[in-house]
Write a structure and sequence with these properties.
158 residues; mainly beta; Lipocalin; 8 strands; 3% helix
Length: 158
């Protein structure tokens, strides 16, 4: 069983009108679970239409429990975004493999991990489509390269 307890504080500052605006969203996160424990800070910037009608860009971590939300605006809306997050990782069982029984460590993790992301979202009251490109710094000492991955999401209102 996997149990996550995550708290994310993300105040948003917005400039412009509904038709086109810019939004800056710094955030802090604390996450504790039986798999991974970390604390982090970061920020995202978005440019698009009707930004006040949704809940911001989605979290870009593959371990994220967030999903694409559908806008409250009556027509089409869009936004592009970029951002970064720096995390201090206390424990990552997925990499370390340490258990209380074996006490064997398979790799030595990096204490700090950074994610950088860029993407876009197209929304309508009945659906949302988003694409995020993410580059992650090395997560363990013997890792050869940074990770790069794409997250594609579609949400439909049923």
């Amino acid at each position: 069983m996997v149990v996550f307890l995550t708290y994310r504080a993300a105040p948003r500052v917005r400039f412009g009108s509904n038709r086109i605006s810019l939004e800056l969203s710094p955030h802090a996160v604390i996450s504790y679970s039986n798999l991974i424990n970390y604390q982090g800070v970061g920020a995202s910037i978005r440019v698009g239409s009707y930004l006040s009608q949704d809940y911001g860009s989605k979290i870009f971590s593959p371990l994220s429990s967030s999903n694409n939300t559908i806008t409250h605006y009556e027509g089409f809306s869009w936004h592009v975004f970029l951002g970064a997050e720096r995390r201090h990782v206390d424990r990552n069982y997925l990499l370390e493999g340490t258990t209380s029984i074996s006490n064997i460590q398979t790799v030595t993790k990096e204490d700090y991990v950074t994610d950088a992301h860029v993407g876009f979202v197209l929304s309508h009251p009945s659906f949302s489509i988003g694409l995020t490109l993410t580059e992650r710094s090395k997560e363990f000492l013997t890792q050869k390269d940074k990770q790069k991955f794409i997250r594609f999401g579609i949400s439909f209102l049923l």
